[in-house]
Specification:
Oligomer: homodimer
Radius of gyration of chain A: 20 Å
Number of helices of chain A: 9
Helix content of chain A: 40-55%
Number of strands of chain A: 8
Number of domains of chain A: 2
CATH topology of the largest domain in chain A: Beta-Lactamase
Strand order of the largest sheet of chain A: 5-4-3-8-7-6
CATH architecture of the largest domain in chain A: 2-Layer Sandwich
Largest interface: A-B, 67 and 68 residues
Shape of chain A: globular
Distance between the termini of chain A: 37 Å
Largest sheet of chain A: 6 strands, antiparallel
Chain lengths: 276, 276
DNA sequence: AAACTCGGTTCCATATAATGGAACAAAAGG
DNA sequence: CCTTTTGTTCCATTATATGGAACCGAGTTT
């Protein structure tokens, strides 16, 4: 369900707005803001581009970049363009491998994949977008590495909406206010009001749909995974092309999806008690 | 060929030594050193653990961690343990998707995989270890996401040794001095002298072997990819279980591997000229 | 050629942000 | 209840980041 990073689906790259907390994080904040800028840029920026984008004085920017490059977090090509560095891959690789949420969810995802025969996703909510932590797909003819770590707006994905539905209203409205809506498809819920309505339904029935709201021809059923005591809020989904995912079929999948989600929550609770 | 992150093959987690440049990167340097510590830790550390590991005063450490957590680069579980944050996954996902080296190499990897029918790796050298950028495998029954971004010591992998062989002697010996050797298997070249000898051979014949030097039962042929003008030094390899990779077979694979490597270098050169 | 721009790098006095010791708070445990 | 361990907050001191300006090299223009 996450878009393959190659296909352009919007006017430009600004998929989701820069989400740097901007709360006082001092020097570090500027550094990661810079990294974020470099990582989000459609085509690798050079010094002057960043100069314009950040609006910082030359000296400061130059030193910051130099430090980031020295740390291997950003790479500087000999032709003067900045690209995200390899060190990030190493960090992320470890982060992924050790992520306990993913680890406990894994067997359940496999089982869910076996019972439904369709693609299964695991995602977590991060502010207003969901980050995909895992994916199980049968015929993985196409490359799929790219999917893990990919993020998509919460308001137009099944797991995103399912996760949002767990928030209390104050938090929910606060996040909605921070969202920048974009109509990826005709079905996208592109207004906060529509989203809130859908979330009311999701709360009522206990699971969420994505009816071609992010990618045309792609539908899914999703259930939230909420374990506040463990600081986990995310979800899982079963995704399929529309012709294979009629409303009856989606309804049929809802039950195993919810069952898997509940099982994962239970497992998390089980591993939280005897922690250490 | 890269170890699946779960299996313990050494006494402990300290696979490769912390490689923070430690050259003056000021505040940022400490931040990523901290991140590195958190990412490398076998089991998620808590505040006091990090206090001991870093030796920093409580106040400073606490503030640094708070900043990192605020930026989403480190997560703080409600039970007080620090884990690498999701933001890293997002960064890495973008880094991977946009990496131009990987993009130009991709078709060649696919072709090489088709001609040999075995697993193909793409890696780049980063100081003394190689980071895997891509992998093409036929029957990917087991999970493989984890492989991308994984790193392994350069001295005991095919692509690692191939890449090392491109360095001039001064640089090479400097890096050797920085390596911490560890005998993963009986075949591991665990002394700098042995490594240098092998590298001499690699230089002579133009490609490298890994004869079960990192993982028992796994062999590979590798060729370097060196494009100094583009700042790229890495390699590709064909990997197979030992019973399928006799010395004749490895020799036979060497030619297509080298051809693919050369083709990639040519492609890189092609895209470097008309840059912008 | 000299004069000009443009992209990038270096320098240095100043102000700001990180430092770290110590006090404070809150659990664990004896 | 008192002690120990673990985590958080405060604040004067100091080191560090800042940013304006000068500098450099390479292309362009006159």
């Amino acid at each position: 369900m996450p878009q393959s990073s190659s296909d352009p689906h919007g006017p430009d790259a600004a998929d989701v707005d820069a989400q740097s907390a901007a709360g006082e994080t001092g020097t570090l904040g500027k550094a990661v803001a810079l990294l974020d800028l470099v990582a989000r840029a459609e085509n690798p920026p050079r010094f002057t581009d960043l100069l314009k984008l950040t609006g910082q004085p030359r000296g400061s920017l130059h030193r910051q970049l130099r430090h980031l490059v020295l740390e291997g977090v950003i790479d500087l090509s000999p032709d003067g363009v900045y690209t995200p560095g390899l060190r990030l891959l190493q960090f992320a690789s470890r982060a992924w491998a050790r992520n306990s949420f993913r680890l406990v969810a894994e067997p359940h995802l496999t089982r869910l994949h076996e019972t439904t025969g369709e693609t299964v996703h695991l995602g977590v909510l991060r502010d207003c977008e969901i980050v995909y932590l895992d994916k199980i797909e049968s015929r993985q003819a196409v490359r799929m590495h790219s999917q893990v770590g990919n993020s998509a707006p919460a308001y137009c994905t099944g797991v995103g909406k399912a996760a949002l539905s767990c928030l209390d209203d104050a938090d929910l409205t606060a996040r909605c206010a921070r969202m920048v809506f974009h109509s990826y498809t005709p079905g996208t819920l592109a207004r906060a009001g529509d989203l809130m309505d859908d979330i009311a339904n999701i709360r009522a029935r206990g699971f969420a749909f994505d009816l071609e709201e992010h990618q045309p021809g792609i539908r899914c059923v999703a259930a939230a995974i909420h374990a506040p005591a463990a600081g986990i809020l995310g979800g899982i989904s079963v995704t399929a092309p529309a012709f294979r995912a009629g409303s009856e079929q989606l309804d049929a999948w809802a039950e195993p999806v919810c069952r898997a989600a509940n099982a994962i929550v239970a497992d998390i609770a089980g591993r939280l008690g005897p922690r250490r």
